[in-house]
Amino acid sequence: MEYVTLNNAVRMPVLGYGVYQVDPRECERCVSNAIDVGYRSIDTAQAYHNEGGVGEAISKCGVPREELFLTTKVWISNAGYEKAKASIEQSLRKLKTDYIDLMLIHQPFNDYYGTYRAMEEAYRAGKLRAIGVSNFYPDRLVDLCKFVEIKPAVNQVETHPFMQQPDAHAIMEKYGVQHESWSPFAEGKKGMFTNPVFKGIADKYGKTVAQVILRFLIQSGVVVIPKTTHRARMAENIDVFHFTLCDTDMEEIRALDQGTSAFLSHQDPATVEFLTSLS
């Protein structure tokens, strides 16, 4: 496994296992399989409703807690200082741990400044090893960085070969925030797995399209958290540290960037209405 060092000196695996849309009833099995395969970073969220399954898996896996890196996120309905403070304690209980390695604000809506103050407090108390944000695009990220006491360590945003986020990446680098991808495969949208560029590069290295995509993002300085419920694919996704894409391959993939989301726009009022209606 390779690591990045966050702006507070905490080391974070560059590749982890994400549990978005993993059925809570299946989550313990999936996370147990992922840890057994070799994953040490697990990414969940309050809104996924499967923190409990993650907690069960890590409490039974036999891997020392200090070798695991756990990420979860405060949801919109838990925003604001008091609600966020209570939700952090609830996440700790569900995850069956005394500390969380990385806590993110899940969406840039509601009183996220109040949420961040609660996270800063929990960070100082040793309950959180690092804090950051998710889905904060450059304007929101700059605003937050300018006025908080503890700079966010990570910003997790939609990032894949068809939406590479170069401008956002540059802003993150400027402010010392680690870029992390959610949905590195774009859930297979836009013909991701049948694209001839990926297939040609995969054949060249004797790898799969998924492995090429993950390798591209890692070499671009992006942390990745691919999700699958299949053990064989978990093993495939983590096996990306024994080859390196050449400059030509990297440029070919960079040329595929369309600059548009495969899912939604956080600037669309209908999207904001939808997200803020969820609990």
Structure, explained:
It is globular, with a radius of gyration of 18 Å. Helix content is 42%, strand content 13%. Helix 3 (81-95) links the parallel strand 5 and strand 6 (102-105). The strands form two sheets. Strands 3-4-5-6-7-8-9-10 form an eight-stranded parallel β-sheet. It has a two-stranded antiparallel sheet with strand order 1-2. With 279 residues, the protein is of the alpha/beta class. The two termini are 35 Å apart. The model has no long low-confidence stretch (mean pLDDT 97). The protein has one domain (3-276): NADP-dependent oxidoreductase domain (TIM Barrel, Alpha-Beta Barrel), CATH 3.20.20. The longest helix has 15 residues, at 81-95.
Précis, in short:
This protein has 279 residues and is an alpha/beta fold.
Q: What's the helix and strand layout?
A:
Layout lengths: L2 E3 L5 E3 L3 E2 L5 H14 L3 E3 L7 H10 L8 E6 L6 H15 L6 E4 L6 H13 L6 E4 L3 H10 L6 E5 L7 H9 L3 E5 L13 H10 L3 H11 L3 E2 L6 H8 L8 H8 L14 H8 L3
Parallel strand pairs: 3-4, 4-5, 5-6, 6-7, 7-8, 8-9, 9-10
Antiparallel strand pairs: 1-2
Range of strand content? 5-15%
Number of domains: 1
Largest sheet: 8 strands, parallel
Q: What is the number of helices?
A: 11
* Shape assignment: globular
**Topology pattern, helix = H, strand = E:** EEEHEHEHEHEHEHEHHEHHH
- The first-level CATH class name: Alpha Beta
pLDDT below 50 for ≥5 consecutive residues: which ranges? Answer: none
* CATH level 4 superfamily: NADP-dependent oxidoreductase domain
Distance between the termini: 35 Å
Q: Could you tell me the CATH topology label.
A: TIM Barrel
User: How does the helix and strand content classify structurally?
Assistant: alpha/beta
Strand arrangement in the largest pleated sheet: 3-4-5-6-7-8-9-10
CATH 2nd-level architecture: Alpha-Beta Barrel
Total strand segments? 10
The helix content is: 40-55%
Mean pLDDT: 97
What radius of gyration results from the CA coordinates? Answer: 18 Å
Keywords: NADP, Oxidoreductase
Pfam family, one: Aldo_ket_red
InterPro entries: AKR (IPR020471), Aldo/ket_reductase_CS (IPR018170), NAD(P)_OxRdtase_dom_sf (IPR036812), NADP_OxRdtase_dom (IPR023210)
Organism: Solibaculum intestinale
